[in-house]
Amino acid sequence: xxxxxxxxxxxxxxxxxxxxxxxxxxxxxxxxxxxxxxxxxxxxxxxxxxxxxxxxxxxxxxxxxxxxxxxxxxxxxxxxxxxxxxxxxxxxxxxxxxxxxxxxxxxxxxxxxxxxxxxxxxxxxxxxxxxxxxxxxxxxxxxxxxxxxxxxxxxxxxxxxxxxxxxxxxxxxxxxxxxxxxxxxxxxxxxxxxxxxx
Amino acid sequence: xxxxxxxxxxxxxxxxxxxxxxxxxxxxxxxxxxxxxxxxxxxxxxxxxxxxxxxxxxxxxxxxxxxxxxxxxxxxxxxxxxxxxxxxxxxxxxxxxxxxxxxxxxxxxxxxxxxxxxxxxxxxxxxxxxxxxxxxxxxxxxxxxxxxxxxxxxxxxxxxxxxxxxxxxxxxxxxxxxxxxxxxxxxxxxxxxxxxxxxxxxxxxxxxxxxxxxxxxxxxxxxxxxxxxxxxxxxxxxxxxxxxxxxxxxxxxxxxx
Lengths: 198, 257
Prior knowledge:
Chain A: Its EC number is 4.3.2.10, 3.5.1.2. Chain A: Heterodimer of HisH and HisF. Chain A: Keywords: Amino-acid biosynthesis, Cytoplasm, Glutamine amidotransferase, Histidine biosynthesis, Hydrolase, Lyase. The complex is a heterodimer of chains A (198) and B (257). Chain A is α/β, with parallel strands linked by helices and 198 residues long. Chain A has a single domain, classed as Class I glutamine amidotransferase (GATase) domain (Rossmann fold). Helix content of chain A is 24%, strand content 34%. An eight-stranded mixed sheet of chain A has the order 2-1-3-4-14-13-12-9. In chain A, strands 6-5-7-11 form a four-stranded mixed sheet, covered by helices on one side. Chain B is of the alpha/beta class and 257 residues long. Chain B has an eight-stranded parallel barrel with strand order 1-4-5-6-7-10-11-12, surrounded by six helices. The longest helix of chain B is centred in the N-terminal third of the chain and has 11 residues, at 32-42. The two termini of chain B are 16 Å apart. Chain A binds chain B through residues 11-12, 14-15, 18-19, 21-22, 47-49, 107, 109-110, 112, 114-120, 136-138, 140, 142-144, 158-159, 178, 180-184, 186-187, and chain B through 1-3, 5, 40, 45-46, 67, 70-72, 74-76, 90, 93-98, 119-124, 171-172, 200-202, 223, 225-226, 255-257.
């Protein structure tokens, strides 16, 4: 099983690779469309801002490569947001693989944004990606924008408003939290991702 | 609902975890990775590694141990100590850290906060503040606290610095109340509550944890997002599973492990 992580310049994407290595999968970074297209599994990590990340994918000539992938694809954090139609962050068109617009989380004096820390998952659809994950299990989130709950949402989380925490449409999957930093639950979701039939 | 975070802090010197009282007289507490894994297994929500001699010695963090930790640890961790440029922060983040915390270098050059936020996003940028109450009753910032012989008192009020740091792009503030650090008589609720009133980003309490009730108090009375402690965890006088049970019993939302 070869996992290719799309190297779009995120700062701490190394930890995603280590997480796959802990699961015994070989994982490497690439920005080469041919290497990405040939991978068994593709991960789109992402830390930073949506507009900058889309510009970077465009610059690398990877937009259509990612759109055309047929094998299982997992977007992590910003990488998941990029799968949607568009984002309010920088008012940018994203990859359009999932319908919906990513919007800024509304903070309040008691509700800090960015949403940072461990929050609970509420599964709403039964799916192999969530095998072993129960309502109330926690995952580690760090984000200021969030995707809407749609028919593609497998699990939600709530920080003032309820948003999509895990999404899937066919082979396009995403986690708003950081599975690589979500202890046993995160490892389980990555393991499930490796196991989903291609 | 977001959990309150329990955060062991590992002070690092020469690749080992050390702990002193009121920032002095450091004793060896063990191997970095060994302790990090122990805390992960016990249910720590996050770890902070603080290279206590990097800033006073004018050098950046040793990347080697950051990478060793990142390979093995599956909870978030933050690295602090002597990070004074975007390039140095990038090296630490690339080695696998989730966040960088800056203290002395941000005081020397506050623009650094914004530069890091622009380069990596505010969620990566933690500003650590060491603060001590002066005789006139004001909390003021201290600098170079890793080395008592070089520690300096600044004219800057801690509360002003909190406001400035978040305006410049800090995504989280760790307020270390030096008056209570290492003496285990409880967090400085008064100062932390004053900070909370001004702080829109996550606020982490540091300094003073002695028993589980201190954690209950700081979450209830100062509404902090996280509470950091070192010696009580290293010595085993507070065990994280029991601490979390007590917090949950007090109605405080914590992560179930």
